[in-house]
Design a protein that fits this description.
CATH topology: Metallo-beta-lactamase, Chain A
Radius of gyration: 18 Å
Order of helices and strands: EHEHEEEEHEHEEEEEEEEHEEH
Strand order of the largest sheet: 3-4-5-6-7-8-9
Distance between the termini: 52 Å
CATH class: Alpha Beta
Strand content: 15-25%
Number of helices: 6
Number of strands: 17
């Protein structure tokens, strides 16, 4: 029995004797099946050929898998005096990664923006004392490995620790989620937006899409909902999904300006 992992999106499935016939996440219009067709791997095979780079990045700890695997997103370890939060997830988890993160205080909770980054979230939870995994209930059907460690929240916002609030924005996925960290002392608030609110290449603007690889835009109602969802929360920095995707200042203004530009373009 193996818990197979899709090579295109990195999602781990419940244990089976044979690999699944297809990955529903990749067959959805927001993702894609690789050019070589549906392919699978296992965590053991992934550990043999890849490693995680764990390094500070703009006030948090970034976790990148090398060489590139699946979508290639990063996970972010957000350290705080009370508890550490893992934002988003990567498929590779090995002893070296576990050791390095435990030296930083471990993980008390896991929160994930949307199904493309669920990856091996259950393995991560097990490795760090059954840390609760927080997912929005609107995306329940995309969980390929159901587990008691997964907690589904249903409201528009949900506090997971002092100063940390999950915000349902929708858009990219029905339960598309961002994470807000409230201001601490002289440190302004921060928004961890993954690609629900995606940081652009110039790191001065953001954008919003139903599908990034298939270039499917969102409509006016979806954009307005995203803007309204984050408007009550003050933040300067915005952390996107990939290495280097950080907007350092004026986050609220950047989101508002970018949304207005987007709406003009689709008018």
């Amino acid at each position: 029995m193996n818990a197979f992992i899709c090579k295109t999106c990195g999602s781990q499935f419940s244990e089976t004797e044979k690999a699944p016939c297809a990955c529903p996440i990749c067959e959805d219009e927001r993702q894609h099946v690789g050019h070589q067709g549906q392919q699978w791997t296992t965590l053991e095979e992934l550990r043999a050929a890849h490693r995680n780079r764990i390094e500070p990045e703009e006030g948090v700890v970034a976790i990148h898998t090398e060489p590139h695997f699946a979508i290639g997103q990063r996970a972010l370890l957000i350290e705080s005096p009370s508890r550490n939060i893992l934002w988003d997830c990567v498929a590779l988890l090995d002893d070296e990664t576990i050791f390095a993160i435990k030296k930083l205080g471990g993980i008390a909770a896991i929160a994930i923006s949307h199904p493309h980054y669920y990856t091996t979230m259950v393995e991560w939870s097990r490795a760090f004392g059954d840390a609760p995994i927080w997912l929005h209930a609107a995306d329940r059907k995309w969980v390929m490995q159901p587990d008691k460690r997964i907690h589904f929240w249903k409201t528009d916002t949900h506090a997971i620790a002092d100063g940390f609030t999950l915000i349902r924005c929708g858009g990219h996925f029905e339960g598309g989620t961002v994470l807000h960290r409230a201001a601490i002392a002289d440190e302004p608030g921060e928004l961890f937006s993954s690609d629900i609110i995606a940081v652009c290449a110039d790191r001065r603007q953001v954008t919003f899409m139903r599908s990034f690889p298939n270039y499917i835009p969102l409509n006016r109602a979806a954009i307005e909902r995203i803007v309204a969802a984050v408007e009550p929360f003050a933040f300067d920095r915005i952390y996107g999904a990939f290495r280097g995707d950080v907007i350092r200042a004026d986050g609220n203004a950047v989101v508002k300006f970018s949304a207005e530009r987007y709406l003009r373009a689709i008018a």
